[in-house]
Amino acid sequence: MSDDRWGPTLYVHKLRYDRSPVFRWQARVLEQTPEHILLAGRFGAPRRDLGYVVLERGDLFLEWYYFGRWYNIFQVYSARGALKGWYCNIGQPPERVDGDVRYVDLALDVFVHPDGRYLVLDEDEFVLLKASVLRPEDAARAEAGLAELRALIEAGRLPSRPFDPEEAAQAPLPPPRPSAPDPPPPAADGHVADPSPGG
Q1: pLDDT, tens only, 121-158
Q2: Residue 29, SS3?
Q3: CA distances from 63 to 42, 122, 134, 188 (A)
Q4: What is the pTM of this model?
Q5: Is 83 in a helix, a strand, or coil?
Q6: Beta-strand relationship, 60-66 and 9-15
Q7: I need a surface site. Which of 6, 10, 29, 156 has the fewest CB within 10 A?
Q8: Is 182 a domain residue?
Q9: Which secondary structure element, helix H or strand E, spans residue 61, and what is its range?
């Protein structure tokens, strides 16, 4: 089959509020409009039990980044196509820089189970960020983004795309690691790295 149906690969760069890098991962472009870009990446770290979901190497992340919204949404499937849920990050709208996607993470996260139940995560980290470095207008936009995201969840309107094995096979998978990493230390802003395809 020709590769013409698949978009290019790029890097996603997750940044702290001071725009220093947290980490990056590779993903493949599935769709792009003036409003959003949809990427596919795969989880590259060893098995990670977060308490509310278990992530395993090869899990597929379908990643929606909205150019005018203060959040992004990752739909997570197992490598065999079982829906694990949605992991949502509150952050500044993404930027395209040299072909890549960059976004500033603002600590707040939401995990949504397949049955619609959801958890708001890392609220204590957001309080610390808000008290220490966030500009008031950015804190207000982050809180408005969380409210908008919760409204989408409660209305059952999160973006969703059926699992496609061929599409999943085109999502970049990082090389295996020799052993499970230690838990990531808190960053300078107090934020511990959340799950992303790069692990």
Answers
A1: 999 999 999 999 999 999 999 999 999 999 999 999 99
A2: strand
A3: 10, 20, 25, 26
A4: 0.89
A5: strand
A6: unpaired
A7: 156
A8: no
A9: strand 60-66
